[in-house]
TrEMBL record:
Top class in the EC scheme: transferase
Protein's recorded name: NAD kinase
Enzyme Commission number(s) from the entry: 2.7.1.23
Any one of the GO CC terms: cytoplasm
Cofactor section: a divalent metal cation
Keyword ATP-binding: yes
InterPro entries membership: ATP-NAD_kinase_N, ATP-NAD_kinase_PpnK-typ_C, NAD/diacylglycerol_kinase_sf, NADK
Keywords: ATP-binding, Cytoplasm, Kinase, NAD, NADP, Nucleotide-binding, Transferase
GO biological process: NAD+ metabolic process; NADP+ biosynthetic process
SUPFAM superfamilies per UniProt: NAD kinase/diacylglycerol kinase-like
Pfam families tied to this protein: NAD_kinase (PF01513), NAD_kinase_C (PF20143)
Protein family: Belongs to the NAD kinase family.
Catalytic activity: NAD(+) + ATP = ADP + NADP(+) + H(+)
Length: 291
């Protein structure tokens, strides 16, 4: 395996301990003769020049994300379609998407750069919003795309189409389209199923629907769900990973499906998917604990 030399670092500057962790990691990587670059906001917080995340993702072989799940999601979207791989270290809260905890940072980085940890490819969700027949937004999400109202009190009225058929008029607080990775997040809280991380599928889950029969629908990697926004008393929006927000209007058409673009993620051999379910989500009644 060719040695990995170009290492980028992205960190949540609002998290305690991130700057200390970055300084330590930069020192260790310099001793190993790695070339290191910091993302712009992080670099400014450290008093150094930085690189915009898009350029960083195009340059690096490994992107180390220091923070919680939000930081990991931002880093993963930037790597979509790129050759670099993401190593996410948890310096936040739950950190379900991360591969290691802060105390494991140094050995985790060493193992990833040495090729001792495998990587997995995960496809992202592609979202297209059309207004009066014209595309007004294209975006990607690692976990989920959520159509909902801004106020949180008014129901959203939508028409749904999937598998070549009309699925009718949905009245709900919103709708979640989640990848396998996102099946452990908002979709799970809304009653959706858990998917194995290697499964390429899209889970479509209504949020608090007004009919008992409205339940999750699992679509294949080649299928998509199409929504037409009918209206709501509150402004409606589409949220991609809870970070990229698109305002919606009555009549807007939304298409959600798995994209061709994927992202490579380092996997910790000592933390299989089921162990994360048990340790972080309390799956099957196991006691939740920090890993």
């Amino acid at each position: 395996m060719k040695p990995l030399r170009r290492v980028a670092i992205l960190g949540h500057t609002g998290r305690p301990g991130v700057r200390r962790a970055v300084a330590h990691l930069v020192t260790q990587l310099a001793r190993q003769h790695r070339e290191v670059r910091l993302e712009g906001d992080l670099a400014r917080a450290m008093g150094e020049p930085g690189v915009p995340v898009a350029k960083l993702a195009a340059w690096c072989e490994v992107l180390v994300a220091l923070g919680g799940d939000g930081t990991a999601l931002k880093a993963a979207r930037s790597l979509a379609g790129r050759r670099g791989a993401l190593l996410a270290i948890n310096l936040g809260g739950l950190g379900f998407l991360t591969a290691a905890e802060e105390r494991e940072m140094e050995p985790a980085v060493r193992a990833a750069l040495a090729g001792e940890w495998p990587t997995i490819r995960r496809r992202l969700i592609a979202a297209v919003v059309k207004r009066r027949g014209r595309v007004v937004h294209r975006g990607l999400a690692v976990n989920d795309a959520v159509a909902k109202t801004a106020g949180g009190y008014s129901a959203l009225h939508m028409r749904m189409r999937a598998l070549g058929s009309e699925l009718g008029h949905l009245v709900a607080d919103g709708l979640i389209a989640a990848s396998a990775a996102g099946s452990t997040a908002y979709s799970l809280s809304a009653g959706g199923p858990l998917l194995a991380p290697t499964l390429e599928a899209l889970v479509v889950t209504p949020v608090c629907p007004h009919t008992i029969a409205s339940r999750s629908l699992v679509l294949s990697a080649t299928d998509a769900v199409e929504l037409t926004v009918l209206g709501s008393f509150d402004p409606a929006m589409l949220l991609l990973d809870g970070q990229d927000k698109v305002a919606l209007e009555a009549g807007d058409e939304i298409e959600l499906g798995l994209s061709r673009a994927s992202v490579r993620l380092f996997q910790n051999p000592a933390r299989p998917f089921t162990r994360s379910l048990q340790g972080k989500l309390g799956w099957q009644g196991s006691a939740r604990r920090s890993m």
